Each structure stands twice: as C-alpha cells, then as structure tokens.
C-alpha cells in the first residue's frame, strides 16, 4: 500500500500553542492524532489566575511583532481586547527620586536607539563578532563614546540597559551581541493582551478538543525510537504504564525541560549534535508579580480614566533603577519595570500594577516563596518586602492611606515548575558560537524526523524572527504538521485560524 492510502498515526507531546496548532493542522490533513498533556489543563506556559475577580495572564501577556501575526487575527475573531504598547514612561532613580517625564523619555529614547543599533550591528557583523561579547558591552562602549561628560546620564543609561534584560529573562550582560540579529522580526507595535490569552488558546485548541484527541493528565515518560538505518515505529510510554506505537512523534516540551530530562526521556539518547544544540541554547528567568489595590492611588482621585498610555498625565509604565535607598534587602540588581494595568485593561477599572522581574533577582524571590501558601500572611509579607520599595515611590503614596496597601499579591513561579522547564523561554547568551546553526539542528531534529519519526516544535525552534514568542510556538507547530503531511503524501486542505504562514 502506498503512503497516499495510509493514515499515519501521530503523537503530539504537550498541549501548549505548538502542540495545539500542530494537532489542528494534522487533523485537517486527515491524520490520526493523539495529544498527550501532563497537566490537567491546556495552554502550557500560557495560563491565567483570578485575583479579586479579574483574570490575569501568569505567562505570556503580549503579542510581539504583530505585523503578519496570526494571533492578532485570532484575537480579533475571539473579541479579545488588546492594547498597543504605550510610549510614555516615568522614572524613579536609584536614590528613590522621581525624575521628570521629559528626562525619563529622553533616557528611554536613547536606550531604545542603542539597542536598535546593537541589533543592526549584529545583523551586519555577526560572523565577525566575538561570541564572548554581550549586548551590555556594546551599550557601554557607545555610551562612553557618545555621552562622555554626562556622568549621571551615562549611569542611568547603564541601568536602563540592565533593565532591558527582562525581555529575554536574564541580565543584559549575559545576552549575546553576536546573535542579537536573530531577534529582528516583521515589526509593528507590540500589543498587551488586556483580555488575556484565555480565548485565544481556546480557539487554537478547539479542533483538537472537539475531536476528543487531547488526553489531559497523561504524562509521557519515554520516547523509544529505533537506532538503526530503517524507518520504524516510535513507542510512547506514559506514566500510567501504557505503551503505544506511532508513526511520528512531535515533542513540544519546553527547552528547559529538554535540558533536564532528555537523557532519560529519549531511548536511545539523542545524537550528540542534537544534545549539544539543546545545551547551547539558553533558557530565561522571567517572572511576574501582580499587586491589586483598593484604588489606583498613583492616579488623581476621581479622574476620568478613558484613555490609554497616560491617565491624568501619568504614564502607564514606570521604570525603576536598583533602589540604593533599601539596605541589605535586595541583593541582586533590580532595575525593572512596572505597568499600571488601570491604563490597559478593558474598562480601565482594575487598580493593579504588574512587575516584570528577571534573572538572579527573580530566582531569589521565587525560591523565597517556595512552599508558602499563596495569599497567606507569610507569602504576602515576602512579596510586600520585595515590592514596597518600588510601589511606595509612585505618585500620591501615603503610608497611612488604606488605598495604598495591596489587598492581593501574586507572583509567578515558572522557575519552580518542572513541566515549564523551570524557566520562561529561550534566549541566546554569551559564549554560544552559532545560535542559528543550533536552532536549525534542533528544528531538523538531527534528521530524526525524516528517518525515525521524532520531531521538535515550540518557541525555541521557531523561525529566528519569532523565537521566544507565543506566535513562534504556533508557527513551529504548524510547520511540523505540514512537513509530516508532506512526508506521508497527505492532502492538506487548510482552514487556517490566521494568515497562511508558509512564507513567513
């Protein structure tokens, strides 16, 4: 019987964006699909919690590079409210002093320009750049050359550059200048998913859920493939003790999980080039803290809150430089950003601020709250200790005003989540010699896909301009599905959930 008359049997490991989109496209091609998900929910690192009756995204909460982005179409189709990234910014410096809005905006504009130039420099000279050089090295050199004689501004630029590491989840001093060019995408102003990713994920999952092919709470322990020269079945062994053979297996487990478990998960072990590629790509440490207050005290009381970007003249975003006014309390650099969700949420009714924390500072915090009961007194006290030095510097703060005391605290703990890979998403750090080659090896699965039926999908193997994003995971899952259908001569009658992605 020729391939055209066979219906391949495919296992998809993981029900995040990559796995769900992969299953959708495979189902459109007439493939027999089973999705194994270890959690009792779909979505992977896209997940919401309810605080004070409002849903908030614990994982991804932006759509990056919205041009030619299918998730924007799905957001529109599901009536998910999104808000363009605001441009206004306030600044509290290391001494706790609120700087003028013009100074803060000059600082932001300058550092944005320096990072854009770093990307262009990387794009033009990547092959010649020493892998040991960081983005921070480039910024320091340019700042020294261009702002000599302005010591305060130079120091503030350094702190702003350190804060920018939050976008990758690790300190800017650890991020590769050589591979910064790989993050240049199709463009557009990033949008905040104010309505949360909940309905977007549900829409992507709908075909697989309706077909009943998703098995929740079903953890896969091992993938057993044949270590010889002929194509063969791939065995999937679950934690419940079942074994089932498949023609193809798509592994969408996070990069951090692969780093930790690949030697026991794949039988036999993965070929050395593939294992080395997994080791070479890094995994970030971004976490989020949500604080909800009785009122948005940082805004003037009684003001009309019907605009975005700035309400009553105060910007949506406040940058904080490491608080030197707090002694022996925050041992790691804490140059960070907080976002006023009052500006961004639909209806502008939520008096909530969102902290983005990353790197060693985030690691210390999540390990401090490890084992504590969320929303319990000890948990809240830890988060209060970490956040008060920042929110207490917002406008209108008064220590005895009840409106200035949080009534709800929440911190993500992705670094404690084994299924999430104990981190956030992939990045490229100093010392990596050839990131594009490593990603290509992992994307190609070291030819295991063509010969042995083992494939990889996820944000870590997305097209270079989409890595470390939700749409990158989505595209990656779709492309693997298309390649499987092509391998088996399946006719793919696309009913796309977004724009066709074949040429992105």
Helix-strand layout with pairing:
Layout: E1 9-13, H1 17-28, E2 32-37, E3 48-51, E4 54-57, E5 62-63, H2 70-77, E6 83-84, E7 89-92, H3 101-125, H4 135-146, H5 151-163, E8 191-192, H6 198-210, E9 214-216, E10 220-224, E11 234-238, E12 243-246, E13 248-251, H7 255-265, E14 266-267, H8 272-280, E15 282-283, E16 286-292, E17 310-311, E18 314-315, E19 317-320, E20 336-340, H9 341-344, E21 352-358, H10 359-368, H11 377-391, E22 408-411, E23 426-427, H12 435-444, H13 448-452, E24 454-456, H14 470-487
Parallel strand pairs: 1-2, 1-13, 2-9, 7-19, 10-14, 13-24
Antiparallel strand pairs: 3-4, 5-8, 6-8, 10-11, 11-12, 15-23, 16-21, 16-22, 17-18, 19-20, 20-21
Helix pairs in contact: 1-6, 1-14, 3-4, 3-5, 4-5, 8-12
Q: What do these coordinates show?
A:
By secondary structure, this protein is α/β, with parallel strands linked by helices. It has a domain at 9-44 and 197-282 and 425-488: FAD/NAD(P)-binding domain, CATH 3.50.50.60. The chain has helices at 17-28, 70-77, 101-125, 135-146, 151-163, 198-210, 255-265, 272-280, 341-344, 359-368, 377-391, 435-444, 448-452, 470-487, and strands at 9-13, 32-37, 48-51, 54-57, 62-63, 83-84, 89-92, 191-192, 214-216, 220-224, 234-238, 243-246, 248-251, 266-267, 282-283, 286-292, 310-311, 314-315, 317-320, 336-340, 352-358, 408-411, 426-427, 454-456. Strands 7-19-20-21-16-22 form a six-stranded mixed sheet. The protein has a five-stranded parallel sheet with strand order 9-2-1-13-24. The protein has a four-stranded mixed sheet with strand order 12-11-10-14. Helix 3 packs across helix 5 (151-163). The longest helix is centred in the N-terminal third of the chain and has 25 residues, at 101-125. It is globular. The two termini are 35 Å apart.
């Amino acid at each position: 019987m020729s391939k055209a008359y066979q219906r391949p049997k495919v296992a998809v490991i993981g029900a995040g964006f990559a796995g769900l989109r992969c299953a959708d496209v495979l189902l459109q091609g007439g493939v027999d699909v089973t999705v194994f998900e270890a959690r009792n929910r779909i979505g992977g690192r896209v997940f919401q919690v309810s605080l004070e009756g409002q849903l908030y995204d614990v994982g991804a909460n932006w759509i990056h590079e919205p041009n030619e982005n299918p998730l924007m179409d799905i957001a529109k189709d599901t009536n998910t409210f999104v808000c363009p990234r605001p441009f206004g910014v306030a600044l509290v410096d290391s001494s706790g002093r609120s700087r003028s809005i013009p100074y803060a905006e000059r600082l932001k504009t300058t550092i944005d320009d320096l990072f854009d130039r770093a990307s262009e420099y990387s794009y033009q000279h990547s092959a010649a750049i020493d892998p040991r050089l960081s983005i921070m090295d480039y910024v320091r050199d340019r700042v020294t050359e261009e702002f000599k004689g302005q010591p305060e501004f130079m120091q503030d630029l350094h702190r702003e550059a350190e804060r920018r590491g939050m976008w990758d989840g690790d300190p800017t001093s650890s991020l590769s200048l050589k591979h910064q060019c790989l993050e240049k995408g199709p463009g557009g102003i990033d949008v905040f998913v104010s309505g949360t990713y909940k309905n977007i994920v549900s829409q992507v999952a709908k075909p697989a859920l309706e077909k009943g092919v998703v098995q929740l709470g079903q953890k896969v322990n091992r993938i057993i493939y044949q270590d010889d020269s002929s194509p063969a079945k791939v065995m999937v062994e679950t934690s419940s003790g079942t074994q089932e053979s498949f023609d193809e297996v798509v592994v969408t487990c996070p990069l951090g999980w692969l780093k930790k478990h690949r030697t026991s998960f794949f039988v036999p072990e993965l070929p050395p080039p593939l294992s080395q590629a997994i080791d070479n790509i890094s995994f970030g440490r971004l976490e989020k803290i949500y604080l909800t207050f009785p009122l948005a005290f940082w805004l003037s009381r009684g003001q009309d809150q019907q605009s975005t970007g700035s309400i009553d003249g105060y910007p949506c975003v406040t940058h904080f430089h490491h608080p030197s006014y707090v002694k022996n309390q925050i041992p790691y650099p804490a140059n960070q950003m907080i976002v006023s969700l009052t500006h961004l949420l639909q209806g502008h009714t939520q008096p909530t601020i969102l902290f983005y924390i990353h790197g060693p500072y985030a690691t210390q915090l999540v390990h401090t709250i490890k084992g504590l009961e969320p929303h319990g007194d000890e948990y809240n006290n830890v988060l209060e200790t970490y956040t008060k030095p920042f929110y207490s510097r917002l406008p209108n703060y008064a220590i005895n005003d009840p409106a200035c005391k949080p009534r709800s605290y929440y911190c993500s703990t992705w670094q404690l989540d084994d299924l999430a890979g104990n981190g956030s998403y992939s990045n490229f750090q100093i010392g990596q010699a050839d990131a594009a080659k490593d990603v290509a090896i992992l994307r190609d699965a070291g030819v295991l896909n063509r010969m042995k039926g083992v494939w990889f999908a996820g944000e870590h193997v997305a097209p270079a301009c989409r890595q470390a994003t939700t749409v990158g995971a989505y595209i990656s899952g779709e492309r693997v599905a298309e390649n499987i259908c092509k391998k088996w001569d399946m006719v793919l009658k696309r009913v796309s959930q977004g724009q066709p992605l074949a040429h992105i």
